[in-house]
Every structure is written in C-alpha cells, then in structure tokens.
Design a protein that fits this description.
It contains six helices and two strands. With about 170 residues, it is mainly alpha-helical. It has one domain.
Amino acid sequence: ESASDGVIAPLFFLSLGGPPAALAYKAINTLDSLVGHLDPKYRHLGWASARLDDAANWIPARLTALLLVVAAGLTTRRVAPMRRAWRVLRRDGHKHPSPNCGRPESAMAGALGVQLGGRNVYDGVPEDRPLLGDAGEPLARAHLHHALTLMWLASGLGILLAVSWLAR
C-alpha cells in the first residue's frame, strides 16, 4: 500500500496534470493520514478526506497491484510467481475493508507465496482483517527482503511508465 500512496499515485497524478495535480494528490493523502481516521473530534472532516483519498487512489492502487504482479515475474525470472500474484489479486483484492489497500496487499501476498492479514493491532486495539493470499510458508526475514525488492522494482516500473508518458 505504501508503494501506491507514496510513489505510484503521485507519479500518476504528475503524469495526468503536472506538479499541481501531484501536489493536490499529496494534500488529499496527507489530510487523510492526519484526520481520516475515526476520531470523534474530526468525524466529518475525517470522513470526507478519507472518501476523497479513496477516490483519488482507485486507479493508482490497481496500477500498483499490476506492477507488483509484473515485478513478481521479473525478480524470480519465472512465470509461476507472477501467475500466483495475479490469481491472489483477483481472488482476494476486494476482501480488504479499504476499497484500495487490498489490491496491492493481495498482489504482494501472492508474489511472496504467503498469507497476510488476520489479527492486527492498531493503536493498541486488536482488529481482525480478512486473510489475503494462500497459507504457505510462515513469514520469515527473506520474505521481508523479497517484499522490499518487489516494492522497489514496482516503483521503478512506475517511474518508467511516468517518464514514458511525460516524454511523449
């Protein structure tokens, strides 16, 4: 999800509308980060900023997921991880409570051959999330390194797409 919010989405908006569009996106995303949570003090502003962020990230989140699928094939030089990432993306991408987070997260789970989600703790409160991916190997340090490689490669592919679009 961070590759989508932090890299692909700003590049997407930069490609569409130049620096003003990229800055507008970052303002929307930052507002969501600051007040887009269920804080009673900012309930109305938070709700609006969260919905605006959801709308702004609709295409970039899906583009990020596709770039992660491609990266899965490039990092391993095999088709099987790419197919698995695509299958998990299609099967599980919609399961996340966020309309966008589940896409890149499920593609990453498929690319790594692991299962993500389940019980997480946010601000000290346990929360159960749907499982994304197939139960496979238990998470290990090697998965973290592979995930970082996938994220960097997907981000690099996004940069290439943006530069190609802007250079036309």
